[in-house]
Amino acid sequence: MMDLSSATTVLSLVTLLVWNCISGAPKLQKNPTYDQLVTGIEVLHNVFSMIGLVFVDGLFDVLLSATPPPLSWFKALPLIMAGTVLAKLWAVYVIVLEMKGRRPKIYIGSGTEIEVGVRRRLYEYNKKKGRKPKYVQKAIDEGYTITHQGYLCWLPIPEPKNEAWAQLAVLALEATFSFYFWAMNSSKAFDMAHARRWSLEDFEYDGCCSHSCLLEGLLTDDLTPEQVKVKYEQMIIMRKERQIARRPIRNTQKNARYKKTPKAVHNERDRVIKERAREQKRHHCSDCDRTFGTPYELRQHLKTNEHKKVVEHWTPVTKNQKQVARNKESKRHYCHPCDKPFGSPNDLRRHERTGVHQKKVATLATRMDSPS
User: Which residue range or ranges hold the C2H2-type domain (predicted)?
Assistant: First the structure.
């Protein structure tokens, strides 16, 4: 963790934390745009000042505390209201989930909807079938209840010219707070241990965040066409590298799940899938009027002589017939008196026993014996 003693205000402290989070993140854990736009800590400070960022009271002391904040601190975070409804703001928010007899959970997210801001995002949590993050929904399914929603920081919905920078700032803040307060759903480091201040054993809650939001897409209004091109090339390379890195883990998990499932279950599932495919005629040969259970079976059928007979009125040539044709063409088994090639030595011997061949040989012998 970097030295934070130089920070005298909450803005300077948060700026240091965000810079530490972004600059120390591996390339596979962040959008390349951060490296292109955030070239120094001064850039972050100017962006935070420009967008009118406001932090919750007491955040400075909590960030420098020797121990993580208790759950009660998160449950005291405010919501900014406009009358009886949520104000139209962009914000980084915290969701608190509790269940009797279980460790509480928190989720840190952000809302950057251009019309009503974070309001639309938070309303989803109040709907029974609203769109919720994966592990928040999983916790609710297990019996957890959302007991509080509150803001860590917020800003007015930005003007169009500042949208790109404001979105970058909010996502960077979300990532920083998620790792700093460790709202991640796993104890693995995500290669972001440098962004966490306290030991994992010190937290009295678990997290529900599934990934680093530094990987999420960003607006590119402030990028030149050349920078946009470079960004997307880097994104493609990064995505491929990430897929390659995850492939062994995913294959191992998939194989483990497959092995745990009884073979009879797999066989029954395959049978049902094939029957459904045949009923719907997904893999159908219209020429032969035959339906198959899998695309592989259809491809194999299209290669068969049976199919070729129907389509091309084709007579199959066996392996033996091909060899016979080659022997005749090369005159490997050849009858010189009759000037006739044969496909096999047996055919040649049978021919030599025929009357036609013997007459031909006798005629040639007579010609050779008679005087000229």
Answer: 283-310, 333-362
- CA distances, 280 to each of 268, 291, 361 (Å): 18, 9, 69
- Eight-class DSSP state of 184: B
Q: Does residue 79 sit in helix, strand or coil?
A: coil
CB atoms within 10 A of CB 252: 10
Q: 238-275 pLDDT, tens per residue?
A: 778 877 777 776 677 777 777 777 878 878 888 899 99
DSSP letter for each residue of 264-325: HHHHHHHHHHHHHHHHHTSEEETTTTEEESSHHHHHHHHTSHHHHHHHH-PPP--HHHHHHH
Helix (H) / strand (E) element for 16: namely helix 10-24
Interhelix angle for 163-180 vs 41-50, to 10°? 110
CB 80 within 8 A of CB 86: yes
Burial code of 7-23, b = ≥16 C-beta within 10 A, e = fewer? beebbbbbbbbbbbbbb
- Asked whether 119 and 126 are in contact (CB, 8 A), the reply is no
What single-letter amino acid sits at 207? G
Query: Which amino acid would we find at residue 66?
Result: A
285 touches 298 (CB < 8 A)? yes
Label residue 363 exposed, middle or buried (CB < 10 Å: 0-12, 13-18, 19+). exposed
**Cβ distance 113 to 80 under 8 Å?**
no
Residue 30 is given by DSSP the state S
Return the higher-pLDDT residue of 349 and 5. 349
Condensed to tens digits (0 to 9), the pLDDT of residues 29-81 reads 888 888 888 889 999 999 999 999 999 999 999 999 999 999 999 999 999 88
pLDDT computed for residue 305 by the predictor: 84
At a CB cut-off of 8 Å and minimum separation 6, what does 166 contact?
A: 47, 51, 90, 112, 155, 158
DSSP category for residue 7: -
pLDDT band at 89 (very low <50, low <70, confident <90, very high): very high
Token pair for 126: 């109040």
The mean pLDDT value of the chain amounts to 86
Determine the Cα–Cα distance for residues 25 and 225; give it in Å rounded to an integer.
Answer: 25
